[in-house]
Write a structure and sequence with these properties.
By secondary structure, this protein is an alpha+beta fold. It has 11 helices and 20 strands. Among the domains are: 122 residues, Cathepsin D, subunit A, domain 1; 156 residues, Ribonuclease H-like superfamily/Ribonuclease H (Nucleotidyltransferase, domain 5, 2-Layer Sandwich); 61 residues, no CATH class. The two termini are 48 Å apart. One of its GO terms (biological process) is DNA integration.
């Protein structure tokens, strides 16, 4: 969005700026030109504390300028980046009827090398735009503050502290600029990452941070690169569990629908985007298929199970013979018991206070919650999208290897290998087509949204329409899996999701050791 270079506010240009007209009154044209000059000594107080000019002569390649006028970090040389993800967009310059091109973005890793404030430190700067047309590297004050960094003035320099009040670096005054001196950790220019490649990193995210053992097995279904030593911080943080004794899965059925395991999880806070407080998982013992449903109240269990029975017995020509649940009142009640008896379904109930007897359903709950937490952590989406994350995890769990199973669950269920090329990364940016009847003649045909998952009973994707703040289902979509959709939601509060209280047992799943053996 183009901003007024006088007051740095949107929706107007400098010549119409109220602040400028109020301040200058009948100032001559000559004084206006002097006021626009970056080197003028008398500057309007509504201007940024400091703004770098891209038209100045090139600075030393290791110098970064601390800039309170730019809304994003920018680097002019690719040598700073580990990897650049292509995304071409326009950037408008402050005070100029001019725009320059951003070629992509990535993460910059550098070393602070000034000896004026102590030992060198390695620093990581995320979401840096690659703009070759710039003549200097810019470090955005706004982005630093949004990430929780503190900026303090001290004589002829500015101090930058992290969230723990640790001094990271200093910017020193020089020729009217605040300069930082960094040294790149890379010795050569990086190459652009091709989003169409089936690389290990992106498939690891698409498959809900699947562990290394099962990533190797899934190579029978997708083209994925070999990686000998892969580490994922999201897995380290969101999937760590207490070690206990491993358990062994034993098949207790000989065909699909012969035995179903069921469990209800909740209440979950906050409520989902659709108002759900619970989710119920049904596990087919033979295939390992997961079926999840989201409920606002516990009394919806009967309707969901009865609809599930009619639908899947009709689709598979098989009958449900056994249902295994705990002793919760949502499963042990007269209405459901009567229905099961009339349908010829044997109801197996666990021993009270012994939830391990329904271990497959308990395990499914933990797997889905762990994976959903990883998705929300990585995507930085609000916790109210937990139901979408669990729905996404269910779909991925059904097309990835399962402990004790020779084939993936969906292959056993439908009798053939499924195609997985439709899978996309949760929380990434998605550009979807808007039908003609829903837009004016001069409206662009596309709109930006956030990828949340897959439609349940039809081909398509579930997308969060950022403009209208609602979830829709669409087919005509283009994805940018290297850009987080949460970037366009505005400033959101950082939330943590404590799911440990939702489990009755602390069994270790042993499925989430993501490191390559």
């Amino acid at each position: 969005m183009r901003l007024c270079y006088v007051c740095r506010q949107p929706n107007h240009v400098a010549k119409d700026c109220f602040y400028r007209n109020q301040k200058e009154g009948t100032t001559t044209s000559r004084r206006r030109k002097v006021h626009r000059n970056n080197n003028s000594k008398e500057r309007n107080t509504a201007n940024p504390v400091f703004t770098a000019s891209p038209n100045e002569e090139s600075l030393c390649e290791n110098i970064w300028i601390l800039d309170s006028g730019t809304s994003c970090h920018t680097a002019k040389d690719s040598v700073w980046f580990e990897k650049i993800f292509p995304e071409r967009k326009d950037i408008y310059l402050a005070g100029k009827d001019l725009k320059i091109i951003c070629e992509g973005f990535g993460t910059v890793k550098a070393k602070t090398v000034s000896t004026k404030y102590g030992n060198p430190l390695n620093v990581t700067i995320e979401n840096v735009s690659y703009v070759p047309q710039l003549r200097c590297n810019l470090l955005s004050v706004i982005c630093l503050m949004d990430k929780g960094y503190k900026i303090k003035s001290d004589n002829n320099c500015v101090l930058i502290y992290d969230k723990s009040n640790k001094l990271i670096t200093k910017a020193f005054k020089n020729n009217g600029r605040l300069e930082l001196y960094f040294e790149s950790l890379y010795n050569s220019e990086c190459y652009f990452s091709n989003p169409s490649n089936s690389n290990y990193d992106i498939w690891h995210s698409r498959l809900c941070h699947l562990n290394a053992k099962y990533m190797l097995k899934i190579k029978d279904y997708i083209d994925i690169d070999d990686v000998n030593d892969f580490k994922c911080e999201t897995c380290d943080i969101s999937k760590i569990t207490r070690k206990t004794h491993p358990n062994i899965d034993v098949n207790q059925s000989s065909e699909i629908l012969e035995l179903l395991h069921a469990d209800l999880c909740g209440p979950i806070q906050p409520e989902s985007y659709g108002g759900a407080k619970y989710f119920m998982v049904l596990v087919d013992d033979f295939s390992g298929m997961y079926f999840t449903y989201f409920l606002k109240n516990k009394n919806e269990v009967f309707d969901i199970f009865s609809q599930f029975k009619v639908k899947y017995e009709n689709l598979t020509d098989k009958r449900i013979k056994k249902l295994r649940t705990d002793n919760g009142l949502e499963f042990v009640n007269e209405q459901l018991e009567t229905y099961l008896d009339n349908s010829g379904i044997f109801h197996e109930k666990t021993i009270p206070y012994n939830s391990e007897s329904n271990g497959k359903a308990e395990r499914a709950n933990r797997i889905l919650l762990e994976r959903a937490r990883s998705l929300l952590y990585e995507s930085e989406l609000p916790l109210k999208f937990w139901a979408e994350a669990i729905n996404f995890s269910t779909r991925v769990s059904n097309v990835t290897p399962r402990k004790g199973k020779e084939k993936i669950p969906l292959e056993t269920w439908i009798g053939k290998k499924p195609k997985l090329n439709y899978l996309k990364k949760f929380g990434c940016v998605a550009y979807f087509h808007v039908p003609k009847v829903m837009r004016n003649k001069f409206d662009v045909p596309g709109r930006r949204g956030i990828m949340l998952g897959y439609a349940r009973d039809r081909r398509g994707y579930r997308i969060f329409d950022i403009k209208n703040r609602k979830i829709i289902e669409e087919r005509s979509i283009k994805f940018n899996e290297y850009l987080k959709g949460s970037t366009y939601l505005g400033k959101t509060k950082v939330e943590t999701w404590n799911i440990d209280s939702l489990f009755e047992s602390t069994e270790d799943i042993n499925e989430f050791d993501h490191k390559t053996k």
